[in-house]
Give the backbone structure.
Amino acid sequence: MATVCKLYRGEKPQLIPPKVWTLVTYERVISNDRSMARQLSLIMPPFDGDFLWARHLRWAALAVPDGDLRPRQFMSRFIRDPHGDRDDTGAADHPATPGRSWETTSWFFAGQANQPVGVEVWHDHDQPWPLEHAQFVGTTWDY
């Protein structure tokens, strides 16, 4: 039997400061099997196991001043226990383009009971950059 927890952000953008890893927060819980959602930012499985984690992010269109040709990038990662013994995995980085930037990433990894997992993002633009949309899903299987 599958167990699913899905967190969603889509009404109000989250402003992400430059050059700081920031935990993504969500506006609502769409699915919450076994009460895995925590604080609208984390998913905490109640048992050890192999998990499929997925994230979907959409950054706002990037406004670049005329003549500024500096390349920019955004990064994202899954973070285990972000408020304790931090351990990141499933990281991705992408060049930022003048239009909206999208990323969908999935990652299989072993999880431990009661170990919270979240999504962190980072960018190197010179101003806070809005994360317009985000989804975070944790799926487990019972054997």
Observations:
- The first strand starts at residue 2 and ends at 9.
- The CA atoms of residues 32 and 132 lie 23 Å apart.
- The chain has a mean pLDDT of 90.
